Amino acid sequence: MRVLIISDTHGIQKNLDKVLAKERPYEQVIHLGDIEGDEDYLKAVADCPVAAVRGNNDYFSDLPQEQMIEVAGKRIFLTHGHYYYVAAGVEHLIREAQGRGADIVIFGHTHRPLIRQEGNLYVLNPGSLSYPRQEGRKPSYIVMEAGVFGEPKFFLKFL
Fold this sequence. Notes:
Layout: E1 2-6, H1 13-23, E2 28-31, H2 39-46, E3 50-52, E4 66-71, E5 74-79, H3 91-99, E6 104-106, E7 114-118, E8 121-125, E9 140-145, E10 153-158
Parallel strand pairs: 1-2, 2-3, 5-6, 6-8
Antiparallel strand pairs: 1-9, 4-5, 7-8, 9-10
């Protein structure tokens, strides 16, 4: 299964559209918040199931604050991350994800990409498609390839 993981688009569709076109085919899209009103737009253009959570700038959104989904046999905890103080580090988030029995935790908010493994837990942040903050400031996202057997593979990509 091929999953497109994005975050922090902040209502700007240009780079979102580029990534959706560039990475087809995928069977699922995950958005980690700060979508800023583009929930319906993303669902319409993704042409596959979309799992999304509310970010700190999604003031009037009906999206859930957090979500636990399963992809290819892996339990994935989705959150924007701001309630876990991820700007100061991911320790609180890792403890929460481990307590929930997650295999993978994915968050946004920092606008900085991250792929890390803590024991049996994968910790991911796709960065931001609209306002990247890492060195080089290139819009970023992650593609996850996962089969029912074996460990998932994660590919950090830049526009």
